[in-house]
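hiii, so i know i said id send this last week but things got crazy w the move. better late than never?? heres the sequnce for the chain we talked about at the cafe, plus the structure i predicted for it. fair warning i was half asleep when i ran it
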Amino acid sequence: MKVCKFGGSSVASAEQILKVIDIVASDPARRVVVVSAPGKRFKGDDKVTDMLISCAVRVLDGDTAAEEVRRVVERFESIRAELGLGEELVVFVRDELRRRLSAPIPNPAAFTDAVKALGEEFSARFCAAAFTHRGHPAVYVDPKDSGMLLSEEFGNAQLMPEAYELLRGTLAPIREIVVYPGFFGYTRGGSVATFPRGGSDITGAILAAALKADVYENFTDVDSVFPVDPRIVPEVKQGITEMTYREMRELSYAGFGVFHDEAVQPAVRAAVPINIRNTNRPEAPGTLVLEKRKTVPGRVMGLASSRGFGTLYVSKYLMNREVGFAAHLLDILADENIPFEHMPTGVDSISVVLRDTLFGEPARAHVIGRIRNELGVDEVFYEPGLALIMVVGEGMRETVGTCQHVVGVLSRAGVNIEMINQGSSEISMMFGIREPSLETAVRALYHEFFESKP
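okay and structure toks below
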């Protein structure tokens, strides 16, 4: 049995949805279909999720969002008309969107989640109707009725442990094609809660794990995962055939946009292989993500890069003699609900890497004040504008000198390295550089490790 997830580009229009139907119908093992909200149909188009967020923002600002509602309804009307579906689907879109926008707002984050989740709900209802209309019986399954139980961390929800059994008990007996909305679930109190943006990947992985699927097929708009961002290195043509869960997790975290990094864990939990494929070229085998693969010593498998980080620099003489110093520092961040990414340390200093978007003002000044007052530090400041490059490969564990090799490449390219951090698994190395040097660094590393590899 296969669980298939189709991203926003795969359900952006009636034409794309017909491709989804053909793909699923071509393989009887494809029994569960997870869909995102409709994405962009063309350059400059709007994603439905963005349109829904605009609706929520307008209402939170005290407006009616009438124009935004009209645009959402028109988008789904165009899909309905081209698929030849019943008009009641668009009536539901209009009425349900208006109902949620007019609901009380005790919690703005919960209100926003309830509105923006409608993109996936509407998409799944339309796709289920389209499957049935074309002779492939399908049912829409609501996350609330099926056991997709999430924490009350609106916009960043986590799956509750008991949800796996609930989902298995609900979905396993269904004989028709199951069409399931990605991205959201419900709290114990009955509120809609969403995963982080791009969370439909997570939904698909959860269902694949719950149902112990033979494979989790993640359909997107590329033939396979590339070893580098093609927006930075457009000449990259060769995709990755196989990679491990750990490699995928490291690369997804550091900027690979093809697959959400949090979607790897459920697949690992149940040892379900992940197959990343192209909706527009379903004949292409794609990239297979497995627990283990054959490795070549010293071979770099992928390069990921991401902007938008900064460094919280803390120094204190004899810090290494002060028991609990690092723990106290992290407790301050935890108190303020600020997650950290990396924490390279020296004898008398600690550098904490944070995401700029999660460490803005006034929280930044408040945290720095607490660190200064509670830890009695000699110096503390935050420097934004950091970019991270992740060099990843299982084969790196078996080779001496990979770090020196990377440093040499960046040095010859004139790129200054702000920090280096290697994971304990030894399959990845993180290099922190200033954002303006990112493209130069990535291109230099690509040409060294991929164009010149034997």
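btw The chain has 15 helices and 15 strands. thought thatd interest u
miss u guys!!
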